Amino acid sequence: ISKSFGGVQALELVEFTVEKGEIAGLIGANGAGKTTLFSVISGFHPPSFGKVRFKNQDITGWKPHAICRKGLVRTFQVVRPFPRMTVLRNVTIGKLYGRERLKDEKRAEREAHEILEFVGLNHKAAYPASGLTIADRKRLEVARSLAAGPELLLLDEVLAGLTPAETAEAMNLVREINQRLGITIFMVEHVMKAVVGLCDRVMVLHYGCKIAEGTPREIAADPQVVEAYLGEDLEI
Ligand code: ATP
Description:
The chain is of the alpha/beta class. It has nine helices and ten strands. The strands form three sheets. It has a six-stranded mixed beta sheet, with helices on both faces. Helix 4 crosses helix 5 (134-147). The longest helix is centred in the C-terminal third of the chain and has 16 residues, at 164-179. The protein is globular and about 50 Å long. Adenosine-5'-triphosphate (ATP) is lined by residues 5, 8, 10, 28, 30-36, 77.
C-alpha cells in the first residue's frame, strides 16, 4: 500500500499479511502512518497505490460499511460513540446495522447486553455514553466493534491513556477476544509491554515505510528499530 495526502507521503509500499487467528501488532513513532494504514485497510481512505485483500477477496475501494459487513471492523484512536445515547443503545446499533443486521430489537438488545458483560461494562448499560471514564469509553468502543461481528478486528491504541491496572485488564480483554471469541486482531499500540505480552508478530513503520517485521523479541533486537523508535534502553 502507498498513500499520499497532497505532498505528504503517509505510506510507501507497505506490505503485510495478518494470518487468521493471530494477534498482529503495528508500532511506530507519531506520524509513522499507522492510523492511515488502518484507514486504508478499512475503506476510509482509498490507497494511492496497492491492494487490500481480505479472506481471498480484493476489497480495495470498498466502502467502510461493506468491509465491516464482510467481517473487517476497526476501532478509532479517538473514540466516537453516539454521546447522547445510552451505552446499551450504542452497542445495540452494531447488532442492528452491522454484519448481522438483526431485525428483532429485543434480541439485538439481549445480545448487546452479552457483549457488555463480556467487556465488563454491563453495569453501566443505562449510562449515557458521554458520561463514561476514558477506560470505559475504550471498553465501549471495543463493545461496539464486537457488535458489528468482526472476524478481523483492527484496534487503534485501545490502551492509550489507561492506568497500569486498567492496561492489565484491557490486555486480558484483548486476549479473550482473540482466544475465546476466535477473532483475529491487528493492533496499533504504543505500550511496548502490551505489544510484547500480546502480539505474535509485529510490523514497524517509520516515516511511512516498513522497516521491520517479526516477533516482538526480534524487532526489539533490531538495531534499526531501536534507533528509529524504541530508544537505547528497551528491556523485554
Ligand atoms: P500517531 O501515532 O500520532 O497516531 P500515526 O502513525 O497513526 O501517528 P498517521 O496519523 O497515519 O500516523 O499520519 C501519517 C502522516 O500522514 C502524518 O504526516 C500525517 O500528518 C499525515 N496525514 C494523516 N492523515 C492525513 C490527512 N487526512 N490529510 C493530510 N495528511 C494526513
